[in-house]
Amino acid sequence: MLSLWPWLAVAGIGALHGLNPATGWMFAAAWGVRSRDRSRALRALVPIGIGHAASVLLVAAAVALGLTMDRIVFQALAGVLLIVVVVYHLSGRKDKRSRTPAGHAGLALWSFMMSTGHGAGLMLVPALIPICMGDAPARDITASGSLTLALAAVGVHTAAMLVVTGAIASGVCRGFDGGARLLQILRRKPPAVPR
């Protein structure tokens, strides 16, 4: 049971990241609400998951390979990338009022930058060390040892995040659909006249 706790921590942190609106459920829900198609919200999970997994994978690979990284430098690079994207986005538009939602590549890049900026991978380090460096039985069955376990941890973390993100985005879309139906019913019904 002791070797199960780091895996539960990895999944739990993934679920916590899924609850955070900055990690994507808000954008997935916006895609679904704007298009009036809940499946579009669920399709937005693919680029969100790719960006988040890439960010977490950088830290997981560093832990698995025994490399050290400076947290300040790591987060500063993400901040610089975010500033470059903002400047590019603001300078390239003619009509500032007609904003269209980001495409899949833009959403994946945004997810990568936000995950890196708030330290999603760094939060996993306390759980990754016992998984990748410990003497757990699972370490012996892999050919490449800790790198494969780090990839598995990234997969568990990202899957937990996407399940929670998808559930919230789908719930928001469903809530907007229900609210729109309620407004239509209230518009059709004449107001009651008091006697």
Total domain units: 1
Report the total helices: 10
Succession of helices and strands:
HHHHHHHHHH
User: Which blocks of ≥5 consecutive residues have pLDDT under 50?
Assistant: none
Q: What is the averaged pLDDT score?
A: 79
User: What would the principal axes of the Cα set say about the shape?
Assistant: elongated
Find the count of extended strands (DSSP E, 2+ residues).
0
Fraction of helical residues: over 70%
- The span between the termini is 70 Å
Sheet-strand content, in percent, reads under 5%
The rounded Rg comes to 21 Å
Q: Which class do the helix and strand fractions yield?
A: mainly alpha
Main pleated sheet: none
What features would you describe in this structure?
The protein is mainly α and 195 residues long. The protein contains ten helices and no strands. The protein has helices spanning 5-19, 25-35, 38-43, 45-64, 71-91, 104-117, 120-123, 125-133, 137-140, 146-188. The N and C termini lie far apart (70 Å).
Question: What is the compact description of this entry?
Answer:
The protein is mainly alpha-helical and 195 residues long. Helices cover 75% and strands 0% of the residues.
List keywords for this structure.
10 helices, 0% strand, single chain, 195 residues
